[in-house]
Amino acid sequence: MLKIAWTEQYAHALPPGHRFPMLKYDLLPEQLLHEGTIESGNLFRPDPLPESIILTTHDPEYWERLRNLQLTPTEIRKTGFPLSQELVNREVVIMNGTVQAALFALQYGIAMNVAGGTHHAFTDRGEGFCLLNDMAIAANYLLEQQLAKQILIVDLDVHQGNGTAQIFRSEPRVFTFSMHGGHNYPLHKEQSDLDVPLPDGIEDTAYLQQLYQHLPWLLDQVKPDFIFYQAGVDILDTDKLGRLKVSMQGCKMRDRYVLETCKQNQIPVAVSMGGGYSERIATIVEAHTNTFRLAQYLFF
């Protein structure tokens, strides 16, 4: 059964100016239910993640200040959100969504989080709409519980996973792979284990060739027994921030290739949604919905 973490009850925590792109967190599961791709039993609502698990990844001093709403104005500005208790609560629930999705993936082969992909959160700070790093927390949890020995993070959001790269800089059991816009945010890139910077305006064929070249090589070299997939749809040609020229079909082919590769190699995969900033909310929802449709079709 495809298990999907849904934290829709926390969407109101976002300030009005940021709600438009975040509407997808409600619309995406509603669309999947409406079209019959999933049933209500596929969805689960995670509880807040225990503090002890957060602290396996994030600096205690940073977490203490974040939890008590004591970040400096500069730190708050870098996150992109006005800081509030509701926002922190929302983030903590999203973190557990990915942890629980990882556990479900071990059972079913794949599981997904409607939110997550918060790859700009560092050990000791947040950036780019990310306060805590869900894939990093979940990866560390699997390692600590001895549920995985070698993890590969496949980050195909248009923005480099700089926080994830920093967190695992000295952790050989987690290999970070980021294929992103080379001239896009963040201006200062961290060093992932493998970075593939892409030129502005790259189209479907050239984009997919990069993925087809690197992913099989990574499986051969890294030999992961678990994969986290950051499936941002801000690679679309309609995206306001992406600067790439990948079509809706190209984005779907990307997801199909990643998910088919995981299934064929019998590697469990936990998927987080990441970014998407097209002008039309329907475009964002359709692109993300394709990822869930493919997961249901390929695995179940």
UniProtKB/TrEMBL annotation:
Residues covered by the Histone deacetylase domain: 24-290
Coiled coil (residue ranges): none
GO molecular function: histone deacetylase activity; hydrolase activity
Keywords from the named record: Hydrolase
InterPro entries linked to this entry: HDAC_classIV, HDACs, His_deacetylse_dom, His_deacetylse_dom_sf, Ureohydrolase_dom_sf
Protein's GO biological process: epigenetic regulation of gene expression
Domain of life: Bacteria
Hydrolase listed as a keyword: yes
Family: Belongs to the histone deacetylase family.
Protein name: Histone deacetylase
Organism: Adhaeribacter arboris
